[in-house]
């Protein structure tokens, strides 16, 4: 098993996994497109997506976001 960042080529499979996860029908994920995911990956301060590979293709996926930092003086 290998955990890695999702690449743009993985996005259709990533979206299929997320939609097949049985999320609440009211979830915004149900209207998410591959183009939306591409924007999420490339924006400033964006997080990304992780894939768990079990051979030649991803078998699980997750999203992550950077942790905001607080600067004090």
Please explain how this structure is put together:
The chain has 73 residues and is of the alpha+beta class. Helices cover 26% and strands 23% of the residues. It contains 2 helices and 3 strands, in the order E-H-H-E-E. The protein has a 3-stranded antiparallel sheet with strand order 1-2-3, with helices on one face. A hairpin with a 4-residue loop joins strand 2 and strand 3. 8% of the residues are buried.
Main features:
73 residues, single chain, 3 strands, three-stranded antiparallel beta sheet, 2 helices, alpha+beta, globular
Largest sheet: 3 strands, antiparallel
Number of strands: 3
Low-confidence stretches: none
Structural class: alpha+beta
The strand line-up of the biggest sheet is 1-2-3
Relative strand content: 15-25%
- H/E element order: EHHEE
SSE topology:
Layout: E1 2-5, H1 11-20, H2 34-42, E2 48-53, E3 58-64
Antiparallel strand pairs: 1-2, 2-3
């Amino acid at each position: 098993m290998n955990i890695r960042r999702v690449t743009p080529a993985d996005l259709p499979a990533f979206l299929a996994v997320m939609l097949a996860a049985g999320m609440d029908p009211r979830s915004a994920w149900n209207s998410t497109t591959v183009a939306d995911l591409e924007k999420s990956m490339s924006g400033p301060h964006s997080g990304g997506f992780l894939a768990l590979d079990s051979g030649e293709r991803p078998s699980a996926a997750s999203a992550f976001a950077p942790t905001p930092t607080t600067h004090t003086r």
